[in-house]
């Protein structure tokens, strides 16, 4: 896909010169994996896990369902890139080019606003991080994954790859083999982190696949909200983003994980996100997908403890040449567990969205409840939306509700708004933003504003 | 203010308005009455520029000395035309504040707008939650009509067409709405499309027009409306 084909002014479509110190050659081999692990000074169990995962990756075939992934050429990808020696802890220490990039995406402002610590990923290594003293006082650990492994090797060993095994799928295996960066979060018992923890991700090298790995452990009775917002510059060849996120929600803990995914339209975004929720714990995934060429992502909750609750709220927006194959998985294993999936998709100018969901209620999950609602908005004749809901209910004492709607943007509503002096494209934008409002009201205002702006930008392009 | 010349309006192939000619003047209140299907709402839609309503080539809609026939609804609104709809739709996830903020971008700062909305809705006795939630979501007939008027007041147009703003509302709402229209009507052209005399007791029209089968068949003053109330439309030829 050439950049000329993009008829959309990408707001963050810029890049700065690469400043990497070590950059691996294209393609993947055992030797390179050993080298990555050695450069990072990792314990031997991690090196072994990487090598084993690599073997699984080689052996597993490409998924034959969902979006077309045949354009991914694994030999053309750079699997490791280290941009500075070690993570920097203050803004002043950052190289000028990196600061420039962050200025453009507004990291310093975000820091001023939230003051909860910013961990920003620049070319696979976390280079900028500032943690509030308060977090440290509370005993909250918020590190990049590499530092997490160095500083808390036992904790990482206990939880790493325990929900998403290396055998899970081809891309989770690939991530396990070559992972770099991502976040490591530990929230001690009873600690409530009041401000959201934010991480900014960024891909900045051509053909560079980003394989971050995030592990969040919320101990009993704790609360944390983690936010990842992604922006990426445009490149002429396809990039791959294959991340893995594992979240442990202990008894009575609550975790919210919010994603605003806005990769440029040449990125394959294939992410495995899964959580395990213990007794009376609550896991909430808020997942907004606007960018990328192809996204395949199905945040999951394993409701393992009695009274556990899982929620996935998702938005998918697909415009021309985009496929958003998104959904959710809810696995009910215990009594009185409840799950709620609310999915809103929008397809325009030939874009394609799919809702793909699995709800599995096991035979011991008595008195559980399931609610699934998927709404699709199709803006024109060229666009398409599909729904693939799967329900496996092995228990008859379960309350299951499923709702699905498909609608088109109403002409009468557009006229109504126009009659108030609003341009047609703005009217469409307003209606689309209204359609996703039940979800956007759940995310922090800054992200809502950003989302609304991006959608309006898309809408104005469609009329031009 | 608004001149309609040789106005023919079609919905698909069917002609609804037939060679209508009329001049609406500034600072005057007009009542447009007529039996069901006479073309009253069609007239409102044609003036705002609903894409489903097609005009003949010789038709002219002249607003402030310019033919606006080629303008889209948003341009017409920007030039100062406002239509309050008979059955306002509800808009999911769009509050009246968001709508007006977008409509008045660059003309009024959000804070002033918010205060203005609060003030007008107090005067109209619109419940606060109706302002904050999705427009017309869970609103009664009367509340919907009040929300229409609220938008009209804030947009401050030159020509206001109210399509059956008095239908489906209780007496108290009717009084509030009428009071507000009387308060803002100065220097504007007000057109009340109505079936009933009721609202005309509160807002005295300068002219009453009777529309039948797409034509103005009679023009008179307030007394004409009273006569219609007594005798119905059938006495008119």
Quick structural summary:
The complex is a heterodimer of chains A (about 475) and B (about 240). Chain A has about 475 residues and is an alpha/beta fold.
Low-confidence stretches of chain A: 1-17, 83-89, 107-129, 201-209, 232-237
Report the portion of residues of chain A in β strands. Answer: 25-35%
> Largest chain-chain contact?
A-B, 24 and 27 residues
Query: Segments of chain B where pLDDT lies below 50 for 5+ residues?
Result: none
The total of beta strands of chain B comes to: 11
Strand order of the largest sheet of chain B: 7-8-9-3-10-11
Biggest sheet of chain A, open or closed, and with what strands and sense? 11 strands, mixed
Description:
The complex is a heterodimer of chains A (464) and B (237). With 464 residues, chain A is an alpha/beta fold. Helix content of chain A is 25%, strand content 34%. Chain A has helices spanning 30-39, 44-59, 96-105, 107-114, 133-137, 145-151, 153-159, 170-178, 411-418, 424-435, 437-440, 445-463; strands at 22-23, 81-82, 118-122, 125-130, 141-144, 183-187, 197-202, 213-218, 223-230, 239-241, 244-249, 254-261, 267-277, 282-289, 294-297, 300-303, 309-318, 323-332, 338-347, 352-361, 368-378, 384-393, 398-408. In chain A, strands 5, 6, 8, 10, 11, 13, 15, 16, 18, 20 and 22 form an 11-stranded mixed sheet that branches. In chain A, strands 4-3-7-9-12-14-17-19-21-23 form a 10-stranded mixed sheet, with helices on one face. In chain A, a hairpin with a 2-residue loop joins strand 3 (118-122) and strand 4 (125-130). The longest helix of chain A has 19 residues, at 445-463. The two termini of chain A are 22 Å apart. In chain A, 55% of the residues are buried. With 237 residues, chain B is of the alpha/beta class. Chain B has 8 helices and 11 strands. In chain B, the strands form 2 sheets. A 6-stranded mixed sheet of chain B has the order 7-8-9-3-10-11, sandwiched between helices. In chain B, strand 8, helix 7 and strand 9 form a beta-alpha-beta unit. The longest helix of chain B has 15 residues, at 141-155. At the A-B interface, helix 9 and helix 10 of A face helix 2 and helix 3 of B.
